[in-house]
Design a protein that fits this description.
The protein is an alpha/beta fold. The protein is about 45% helix and about 20% strand. It contains nine helices and seven strands. A seven-stranded mixed beta sheet has the order 3-2-1-4-5-7-6, with helices on both faces. Helix 2 packs antiparallel against helix 7 and helix 7 packs antiparallel against helix 8. It is globular, with a radius of gyration of 16 Å. The relative contact order is 0.17. It binds S-adenosylmethionine. The site of S-adenosylmethionine has 22 residues, from helix 1 and helix 4.
């Protein structure tokens, strides 16, 4: 569990209102910047998340840290009722503007505005890393999930092949900030992005944290060589 507390750099030590303000600042061009920086891969990562959840029409799924609702809209393609929740009003406002049909609510991952066992499935894409207490968020996600329900965490991770990992790190630390300078509405946030990805636990470390938060049958799958990992788990009955 020590991995959760390894994030000690001042830049990463943000309070919830600072996290929300940072995302308010990137909201306007968030979707575009994502697609540019991931070279279009973000769409396939979102598709893989939806498939891993094995949603059925009529089921209820929570997309936590939904931001502009780009991940929520992908989940809705399954026929399930997908609702997004986020801390940043700026991201939610942008989501409402560009995706008026996607249900988005204000909510903190650490105190979700839903009763126990509300959802058949819960998911969080590229947001668990930003929550100030990821272990508490994983417990809160378990609380709002029905016994036997599924969770998928889609998050940046660590490429498994050393030469690829080295090339990726160089992209993160050199190329990404330069591109963000040209595309993003708040480029400093993308310096935070690179640092937070580096400081995040590896695949096995995140799996251990998910188990410790009360989830069972934890397993993961690497996407794009481990740049992203999908962790899936089941809520204990
Ligand atoms: C990188 S965005 C991800 C958005 C979307 N899920 C996607 O796949 O593109 C991370 C989001 O997590 C949200 N977030 C950070 N801490 C949160 C918290 N404690 N509760 C809810 N949302 C939070 C931020 O406001 C931000 O919108």
């Amino acid at each position: 569990m020590a991995e959760w507390y390894a994030v000690t750099r001042a830049q990463l030590d943000k309070q919830p209102h600072e996290i929300a303000a940072m995302f308010d600042g990137v909201a306007r061009r968030y979707d575009l910047t994502n697609t540019v920086l991931s070279l279009g891969q973000d769409r396939s990562w979102r598709r893989a998340t939806r498939r891993a959840l094995r949603l059925e029409p009529g089921q209820r799924v929570l997309d936590l840290g939904a931001g502009t609702g780009v991940s929520t809209a992908e989940l809705a393609r399954s026929g399930a009722y997908a609702v997004g929740a986020d801390l940043s009003l700026g991201m939610l406002r942008e989501g409402r503007r560009v995706r008026p049909g996607t249900p988005l609510v204000a909510g903190d991952a650490l105190a979700l505005p839903f009763p126990d066992a509300t959802f058949d499935a819960v998911t969080i894409s590229f947001a668990l890393r930003n929550v100030v207490d990821p272990a508490a968020a994983l417990r809160e996600m378990a609380r709002v999930t029905k016994p036997g329900g599924r969770m998928v965490v889609c998050e940046f991770s660590h490429p498994t092949w050393a030469p690829f990992r080295a090339a990726y790190l160089s992209y993160l630390l050199r190329v990404l900030p330069a591109v963000a300078n040209r595309v993003a509405s708040n480029p400093e946030a993308y310096g935070y992005l690179a640092e937070s990805i580096r400081a995040w636990p590896d695949q096995a470390g995140l799996a251990a944290a998910i188990s410790a938060a009360g989830w069972r049958d934890v397993a993961w799958r690497n996407l794009t060589g481990g740049i992203v990992a999908l962790h899936r788990a089941t809520r204990a009955a």
